[in-house]
Amino acid sequence: MSGTLNKVMLIGHTGDDVKVHYFEGGGCIGRFPLATNEVYTNRNTNERITNTEWHNIVVRNKAAEICEKYLKKGDKVYIEGRLKTRKWTDNNGMDRYSTEVHCNDFTFLTPKGENEYTTTKPSSSNQNISQNREDVNTSTDDMDESDDLPF
């Protein structure tokens, strides 16, 4: 096989609300952490072990706005995209690297009105958002995906 493939598929829970940065040209970029878990039982101690892996998710333009509006901390979401590593220099002059999943497709999996981290009853405005959120599934294939990130 002569081709290559850079594809990531994740199902996990958001670790925070989506943070969106808007640019002068009208575009925007959103970021949020996603947690995936591996659960197994230790054969020797019969102890249940959970390992959590954190992923940095990046969404752009309309997808970022949709995620900002409907995704909240603790929501379950399916993410499909590609891995991309950024390099920058920190305040001490050291090279730093960050690997991100640049999302091109997502599906919200938390049923409307449910969130395992919500401890209070949603207000009427939150209920309206939940009703509009049903079956949100989008693809960012038609959205601009510039590789130059300003930060």
Describe this structure in words.
The protein is 13% helix and 46% strand. It is mainly beta. It has a five-stranded mixed barrel. The chain is globular and about 55 Å long.
Keywords:
151 residues, mainly beta, OB fold (Dihydrolipoamide Acetyltransferase, E2P), five-stranded mixed barrel, 2 helices, 7 strands, 13% helix, 46% strand, globular, disordered C terminus
Radius of gyration: 18 Å
Taking pLDDT < 50 over at least 5 consecutive residues as the criterion, the unreliable ranges are: 118-136, 142-151
Would you tell me the overall average pLDDT?
82
CATH architecture: Beta Barrel
CATH class category name = Mainly Beta
Number of domains: 1
Helix share, percent = 10-25%
Oligomer: single chain
**In which order are the strands of the major sheet placed?**
1-3-4-6-5
Task: Please indicate the percent range of residues in DSSP E strands (runs of 2 or more).
Answer: over 45%
| Derived structural class | mainly beta
DSSP helical segment count? 2
SS elements, strand count: 7
Order of helices and strands: EEEEHEEHE
Q: Can you summarize the main beta sheet? A: 5 strands, mixed, barrel
In brief:
With 151 residues, the protein is mostly beta strands. It has helices spanning 61-70, 124-132, and strands at 8-14, 19-22, 28-41, 48-60, 76-89, 95-108, 137-139.
